[in-house]
């Protein structure tokens, strides 16, 4: 086999690896985007629980963040990926003894990343809740809005604006954490780059490409978030 | 006088009975208790003396590897962070640009990719590394882990250091200068004592993040705590391998967190009023 130049290795098509890595990038982005809404929703409710007057709710929410912020991401992932199938198998054996369970690595990654993302996002939401003065709630009740309406129409819009910079950090670490799911076999950027590295023996080249891909994703998302922030500011100014 | 005493704002009365949020709260706490009991009963039920006797020493040894990895890379990273922070704060365009790129690269890419880049990637330069005699260092997975972790944490620590130094008001520099202290003296005697109080919390968070992140060296075949858990699981297919390791990490992180909070309370005692 003739020595392949770097440019053939990086080309698009059967000889090159760009198409495989691009496919991996799509999976990475999809995983992060699929995790985001779930994580944001759970994180919001956890923060709501943490600032509740009810001690039992606070306790339950604090246990959640302590556990999922205290465990290494990799350990959570492995526990979930290997532990849950066994648990489900025990449960399902009562109904259909011959059934087997196989956890999809995308779904497992999505659930684990949502757990981790939500525990970090809940801290951001909590400090945003504390930044909103009590008068906002009282004003909402005074004009006859219910608790749910006050939350949705008065508090949430302000909350999102205050929490935005913190959530941006959470998003960036979520993007980076997606690379961990490659360990349980999801064909995302790092895994595909690793396959290319093993086949071609150009490890530095392909892991470098993977690093640049993650860097590019970070740059793109910082552009996107600054655009969102600018439009939020514009809407603020129009009032 | 008595009228004002009566009008003093009291805390709102605690809700009586069973409002919806209390029901939800109790249900969630019960769920956690059930979950905890489930794990404990699983560990009791699956108690395997042979498993414990075989792997407990390995776990202890792995704990030592994890702790030494984190300690070495934190210290090396702290040393390396000083020039990077200096570069970030310097007025020289080239110097600050270089430091910015360094920080951006290491904070913008996953630590796993950086570790792979060092462990597998540097293998591409084996002949060159052999000629300068560094191959023996990079042959070992533990050294590669320390190298990657130190580079990574140096970027984060440089930002912490910079933020802390910049949080000290400029008047402190000017005051010190007017007393005739030169720059290094000012930094050592005036700025750093104030900056380190600010920096303690982020440094503690960075330490906790490093302890958690150190689990990924298990992927490059280092037998740290997580590496031993992987090995135990591969040999026994017993999930308790991962449950034990999760408990150890959780205890470690909680201990660190409380220790840092305790230190912070101690050193900010003069700021409380």
UniProtKB/TrEMBL annotation, chain A:
Molecular functions (GO terms): transmembrane transporter activity
Gene3D superfamilies listed in its UniProt record: MetI-like
Lipid bilayer topology: Multi-pass membrane protein
Residue ranges of every copy of the ABC transmembrane type-1 domain listed in the record: 25-225
Keyword Transport: yes
GO cellular component, one term: ATP-binding cassette (ABC) transporter complex
Localization: Cell inner membrane; Cell membrane
UniProt keyword Transport, yes or no: yes
Residues passing through the membrane, by range: 21-48, 74-95, 107-129, 204-229
Keyword field: Cell inner membrane, Cell membrane, Membrane, Transmembrane, Transmembrane helix, Transport
Matches recorded under CDD domains: TM_PBP2
Family: Belongs to the binding-protein-dependent transport system permease family. HisMQ subfamily.
UniProt-listed PANTHER family: ARGININE ABC TRANSPORTER PERMEASE PROTEIN ARTQ (PTHR30133:SF2), CATIONIC AMINO ACID TRANSPORTER, MEMBRANE COMPONENT (PTHR30133)
Protein name: ABC transporter permease
Organism: Mesorhizobium erdmanii
């Amino acid at each position: 086999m003739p020595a392949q130049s770097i440019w053939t290795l990086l080309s698009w098509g059967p000889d090159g690896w760009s198409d495989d890595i691009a496919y991996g990038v799509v999976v990475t982005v999809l995983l992060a985007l699929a995790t985001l809404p779930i994580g944001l929703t759970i994180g919001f409710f956890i923060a709501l629980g943490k600032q509740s007057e009810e001690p039992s709710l606070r306790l339950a929410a604090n246990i959640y963040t302590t556990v999922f912020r205290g465990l290494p991401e990799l350990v959570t992932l492995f526990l979930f990926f290997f532990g849950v199938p066994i648990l489900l198998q025990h449960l399902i054996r009562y109904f259909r003894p011959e059934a087997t369970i196989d956890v999809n690595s995308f779904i497992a990654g999505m659930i684990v990343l949502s757990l981790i993302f939500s525990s970090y996002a809940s801290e951001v939401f909590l400090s945003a809740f504390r930044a909103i003065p009590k008068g906002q709630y009282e004003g909402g009740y005074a004009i006859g809005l219910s608790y749910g309406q006050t939350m949705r129409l008065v508090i949430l819009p302000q909350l999102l604006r205050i929490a935005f910079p913190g959530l941006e950090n959470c998003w960036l670490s979520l993007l980076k954490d997606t690379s961990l799911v490659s360990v349980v076999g999801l064909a995302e950027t790092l895994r595909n780059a690793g396959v290319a590295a093993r086949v071609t023996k150009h490890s530095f080249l392909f892991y470098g490409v993977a690093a640049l891909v993650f860097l590019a994703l970070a740059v793109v998302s910082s552009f996107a978030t600054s655009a969102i922030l600018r439009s939020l500011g514009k809407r603020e100014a129009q009032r | 006088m008595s009228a004002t005493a009566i009008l003093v704002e009291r805390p709102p009365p605690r809700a009586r009975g069973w409002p919806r949020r209390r029901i939800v709260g109790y249900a969630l706490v019960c769920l956690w208790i059930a979950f905890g009991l489930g794990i404990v009963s699983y560990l009791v039920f699956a108690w395997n003396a042979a498993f414990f006797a075989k792997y407990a020493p390995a776990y202890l040894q792995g704990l030592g590897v994890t702790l030494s990895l984190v300690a070495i890379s934190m210290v090396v990273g702290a040393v390396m962070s000083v020039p990077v922070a200096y570069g970030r704060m310097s007025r020289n365009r080239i110097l600050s640009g270089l430091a910015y790129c360094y920080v951006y690269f290491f904070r913008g890419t996953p630590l796993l990719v950086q570790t792979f880049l060092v462990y597998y990637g540097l293998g591409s330069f084996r002949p060159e590394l052999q000629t300068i005699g560094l191959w023996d260092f990079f042959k070992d997975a533990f050294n590669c882990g320390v190298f990657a972790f130190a580079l990574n944490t140096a970027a984060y620590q440089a930002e912490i250091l910079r933020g802390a130094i910049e949080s000290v008001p400029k008047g402190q520099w000017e005051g010190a200068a007017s007393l005739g202290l030169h720059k290094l003296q000012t930094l050592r005697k005036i700025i750093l004592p104030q900056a380190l109080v600010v920096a303690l919390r982020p440094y503690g968070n960075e330490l906790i993040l490093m302890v958690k992140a150190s689990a990924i060296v298990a992927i490059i075949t280092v037998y740290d705590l997580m590496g031993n858990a992987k090995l135990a699981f591969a040999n026994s297919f017993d999930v308790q391998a991962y449950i034990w390791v999760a408990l150890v990490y959780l205890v470690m992180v909680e201990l660190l967190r409380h220790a840092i909070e305790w230190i912070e309370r101690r050193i900010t005692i003069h700021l409380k009023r």
